[in-house]
Write the structure tokens for this entry.
Amino acid sequence: MLQLSFFSRYMPRSLRAKLILGVVVPLTCILSILVVIEHRRHETADLSHLSLLASHSAQVVQDNFRHEMLEGDFAGIKEMMDILAESKNFRIIYFLNPSGRVIFASGEDSTSSKMDNTQPGCQPCHRLPPDQRPQSIVVTADDGKRVFRTMLPIENSPSCSRCHDPQQRLLGELLTDISTVKR
């Protein structure tokens, strides 16, 4: 009896209040849940599309790099890297040799550093078998910011054989980081 009197004391007696509690509150909860689900779906789709765009951007850089290499224009490569660094669209652009040493870097980045696939930023892809690795993935950079990281292999071709061993399948890799933050 004590419990019944407790609820009857605090439960509204008007029909309007009962309708609000019985209809509006559950609908608000259901709509809130649906909004959260839809927001996450859109965020996932946006990240997928932006990841694809990051991959295409890296492919354009790689194609320009290949052209400059075939021309033997190393100053052109450095100029292209500096222009890309000034644009602030790419946070990092590294061309790595097969052993992981940085041979070209954007901006003032050091070309004496060596990338190691055991680093935390590399593990989202390198823990997967090579045939299952995505070209582009969102990772957390060393400074804690999320970036689209793209790693494209630079494959040997007949036009490269005047400087490189034709038996060598890969000449290196292109690593790019593009910020996920809107400007």
Observations:
- The radius of gyration is 27 Å.
- The beta strands are 90-96, 102-105, 136-140, 146-155, 170-179.
- The chain has a mean pLDDT of 79.
- Helices lie at 2-10, 15-71, 74-87, 123-126.
